[in-house]
Amino acid sequence: MxxxxxxxxxxxxxxxxxxxxxxxxxxxxxxxxxGPGASGASNFRENISAVTEAGYQAILPDLIGYGASxxxxxxxxxxxxxxxxxxxxLRAHGVTSAILVGNSLGGGIALNLALDHPEFVRxxxxxxxxxxxxxxxxxxMPGIAKMVSGFGxxxxxxxxxxxxxxNLVHSDFVSRIPDELVAERYAVxxxxxKDVLARMRTPNLAPRLGEVTCPIFVLWGLNxxxxxxSGARHFLDNCINARCLTFARTGHWVQVERASExxxxxxxxLRELS
Length: 274
Known about the structure:
Keywords: Hydrolase. One of its GO terms (molecular function) is hydrolase activity. InterPro entries: AB_hydrolase_1, AB_hydrolase_fold, Epox_hydrolase-like. This is Alpha/beta hydrolase. It is a single chain. The chain is an alpha/beta fold. The protein has twelve helices and ten strands. The protein has one domain (5-273): 3-Layer(aba) Sandwich (Rossmann fold), CATH 3.40.50. 36% of the residues lie in helices and 20% in strands. Strands 1-2-4-3-6-7-9-10 form an eight-stranded mixed β-sheet, sandwiched between helices. It has a two-stranded parallel ribbon with strand order 5-8. A hairpin with a 3-residue loop joins strand 1 and strand 2. The longest helix has 15 residues, at 259-273.
């Protein structure tokens, strides 16, 4: 992506984590979600400039199994694996504390980082965060069922990739999905082993949300078919410093479908923490 500098870092297990960055100032780390072809840039392309123009450094890791990072086979993709490898890479990148922006699986990783390393996390911006329900309940959600069934089979092609991306957004937004985004994610998906999704293992962090004391801003699409919007109540009921915002006619990608609004609200939150 134009304007992003990239670095690769070797972490435990001999894996490589790719980190892209733009801008300068306090660190804002964007943690992307799961799914075929996911990467930092493809999840947050519409949000980077708003953050850098506000005086922050945008840092976009590709999680293990995604983007340009290592994609090992024959392992379980646990929440702890995602958390530990991305933290190790961020520290190698020179990040000592950050505000974390996490969507879906990235939201679960952000929460896990806040629980394991509260000194590292200054605040959380979460869009439809995962890991706050039992994993089995997520796999009953229609969006995830469609995603898993469509990945890696003999008919997997650009059209199938477009269908998978379309599932992430409300029907109102489908016609606005760029061909370039589909092609970018398809190129990554073709390099991913099935283990990335088939052997993902995530715990339910909801019982521990009360331990997260940093400020939390949760944004959710009312029509999300991947992570139920009712999950926002977990934060309101259990966290001492949480606010939630729900968008009508919006799916799983608030930061994409409502980019201008998301950027405005996110920058305001960032400035509150400065």
